[in-house]
Design brief:
The complex is a heterodimer of chains A (262) and B (368). With 262 residues, chain A is mainly alpha-helical. Chain A contains eleven helices and no strands. Chain A is globular and about 70 Å long. In chain B, helix 2 crosses helix 3 and helix 3 crosses helix 4. The chains are: A mainly alpha (262), B alpha+beta (368). Chains A and B meet through helix 7 and helix 8 of A and strand 6 and helix 2 of B. Chain A: It is found in: Cell membrane. Chain A: Keywords: Cell membrane, Membrane, Transmembrane, Transmembrane helix, Transport. Chain A: Belongs to the binding-protein-dependent transport system permease family. CysTW subfamily. Chain A: This is ABC transporter permease.
Chain lengths: 262, 368
């Protein structure tokens, strides 16, 4: 009984610790005081200032573009890896898996330095392209692992059944593999997106003039002092995340409900 | 002479010199097989005998190391699976979990772009055939094992292919359902008039359903024949031992022996007779095959015919009794109907001596 109560208490404490900062960001984004130390009533002033900050909006756009491309490419390559490895049982499978997961283990700062030297040696100018390539290195393992666990659960007879019933390899993909992997595809895409969108280390090395990402901009504004409009931005991003989670969650929930009813 | 008469229908499947080698090991040795139109043909053998590989070469999932596969007279060895006029019923059923029963059955017609009305009509027909017309809206995971099996069968026959291959389809079902499905499968095969190639390790399934059976062992087809011939006239020691229960008595076949009443000497048992299917030109080691139920057992009496055996074990199985008899140094199995036991040997107990005999036509002698 006492153990239960202690565990219960710790669980509550963890939740408070996790969510108080998030709640604080939202509350202070409406704070009229202009500083995070006291509260002086409600205002929307910081939201107005946020949208008028052209430089900040520019970095938001860069981050969004990089994250969308990274997530899409990582998911596409991840699907191929997952389907290939789910069927391949021969030699070298374990080493291949290790190679795919390696970027998760190697410190990101090492990867960043390495990428930077490759790009300077090959004279590739820093910008959106180098950001996408760098972010791919860290998001591809995540996307692949998510998709692989899902692909490994498919009955290996399914593609053979599709072939037997007249499908070309492409039809087998669109009619059988993709619909069955869709939840994993959505998850892998979102995971890659957030990994790219919030990345700082890689971006520090790989962003060029005019391609500063949002996290870099926020980080650099620490030197000049955080403005309350950063709180407003934070609140908006939290809202966006919630909407995505709810959309994905609701559609999943609806599917489960439909399947259990009939 | 013109051999291509118009009345001849090409066999559904012809296999010519087909073999498969995996890493230096011949999984299927070169073999020939002809499977007729509308035939229920079983490929029977223990696991690892090459039956699955043979089936996968017919479907095109596996490329043969040598030989040809003909479907309806046309060479399809180089034709990809999706363009072969055959379908497969997978052991796991391989139903698409994201599609409803109706969509699963309609799958092939939709992939092959059959007009929608036509496709829907044929799908409904196929579902009626397997008596699942009322479950079209269900997903596969809401069905029982037997129902999934029927959906898989409907999906395999909906396009009316020339051949349907069934890979141990009853393996996952319980005993009661298996028996039911055996009759159902046979009924449906007759109803749709499609050649079924049934791959199984279960001799009972093969015997009850098949028109003909090919018994395979270690990559070699041992015998191809109808169920009765396979059971009563096994041509090899393996076939006799694999199908049903059989006494395998080692012997020596004398030089020049041939015919229906060949006398051979079985060590310890004495001289016995059986049918020898071939003529041997020199003395060869052989095996005498005789089924337990073909052995007649009588009480031992002075001057009685047959070989003497001592009852070692005596097992009651309801409709019959199983006896293990010690004959010389050998154990011989015999069975006795409950009726015959009550009538002829009412007081039989272990340790009794009996006389064993059989008609020469009920024993086969094969060369080892």
């Amino acid at each position: 009984m006492t153990v239960d109560r202690v565990v219960n208490g710790i669980a509550r404490g963890v939740f408070v610790f996790l969510y108080i900062p998030i709640a604080a960001v939202i509350v202070y984004s409406f704070n009229a005081a202009g500083t995070n130390t006291r509260f002086e009533g409600l205002t929307l002033q910081w939201y107005v200032e946020l949208f008028q900050d052209a430089a900040l909006m520019q970095t938001l756009q860069t981050s969004a573009i990089v994250a969308v491309i990274t997530a899409t490419v990582a998911t596409a390559i991840g699907i191929m890896f997952a389907l290939g490895l789910a069927r391949y049982r021969g030699r070298g499978r374990a080493s291949l898996l290790a190679l795919i997961a390696l970027p998760l283990i190697v410190p990101e700062i090492v990867l960043g330095v390495a990428m930077l030297s490759v790009f300077s040696a090959t004279k590739i100018p820093l910008g959106i392209l180098t950001l996408v390539l760098g972010h791919l290195i860290v998001s591809l393992p995540l996307a692949t692992l998510v998709l692989m666990s899902s692909a490994a659960m498919l009955d290996p007879s399914l593609p053979e059944a599709a072939t037997d019933l007249g499908c070309t390899p492409w039809q087998t993909f669109t009619r059988v593999y993709f619909p069955l992997l869709r939840p994993a595809v959505v998850a892998a895409w979102l995971l890659s997106f957030t990994t790219s969108f919030s990345n700082i280390v890689m971006s520090t090395f790989l962003s060029g003039v005019g391609s500063t990402t949002l996290p870099l901009k926020i980080y650099s504004s620490l030197k000049t002092g955080l403005t309350p409009s950063i709180n407003a931005l934070g609140a908006l991003l939290i809202l966006l995340t919630l909407v995505i989670v709810l959309l994905v969650g609701v559609s999943q929930m609806r599917r489960i409900l439909v399947e259990s009813r009939s | 002479m013109n051999t291509q008469t118009t009345s001849t229908i090409a066999p559904a499947v012809e296999i010519q010199g087909l073999s498969k080698e995996f890493a230096g090991h011949l999984a299927v040795q070169p073999l020939d097989l002809t499977i007729g139109d509308n035939e229920f043909f079983s490929i029977l053998g223990p696991s690892g005998c090459g039956k699955t590989t043979l089936m996968r070469m017919i479907t095109g999932f596996e490329a043969p190391s040598s030989g040809r596969v003909l479907l309806g007279g046309a060479d399809v060895t180089a034709v990809p699976t999706r363009n072969r006029d055959l379908n497969m019923l997978f052991q796991s059923y391989a139903l698409f979990p994201h599609l409803t029963v109706f969509e699963n059955v309609a799958f092939e017609l939709r992939v092959r772009r059959v007009a929608k009305d036509e496709a829907n009509r044929r799908t409904r027909e196929a579902l009626e055939l397997v008596r699942l017309g009322h479950l079209g809206d269900r997903k596969p995971d809401q069905l029982s094992g037997g129902q999934r099996q029927r959906v898989a069968l409907a999906r395999a026959v909906v396009s009316r292919p020339k051949v349907v291959l069934l890979d141990e389809p009853l393996g996952a079902l319980d005993q009661q359902l298996r028996k039911e499905m055996q009759y159902e499968l046979k009924r449906m095969q007759r109803e749709v008039g499609i050649t079924f190639i049934y791959v199984t390790h279960d001799q009972e399934e093969a015997l009850t359903m098949s028109d003909r059976i090919a018994v395979m062992s270690e990559g070699v087809v041992q015998q191809v024949a109808g169920p009765e011939d396979i059971y009563n006239r096994p041509e090899t020691r393996f076939v006799a031992g694999f199908i049903g229960s059989c006494n395998l008595l080692d012997t020596t076949v004398p030089e020049g022996a041939a015919g229906d009443e060949v006398e051979v000497v079985v060590d310890g048992a004495g001289t016995v007779r059986g049918v020898l299917g071939e003529t041997v030109t020199s003395e060869r080691p052989g095996t005498l095959l005789v089924r337990p139920e073909r052995i007649e057992v009588r009480p031992d009496a002075p001057g009685a015919a047959g070989i003497a055996g001592v009852v070692e074990t005596l097992t009651f199985l309801g409709e019959e009794w199983h006896l293990h008899l010690l004959v010389g140094g050998l154990t011989v199995k015999a069975s006795l109907s409950s009726l015959a036991k009550e009538r002829d040997l009412p007081g039989l107990s272990m340790g009794d001596t009996l006389r064993l005999s059989w008609r020469p036509q009920d024993a086969r002698i094969v060369i080892r």
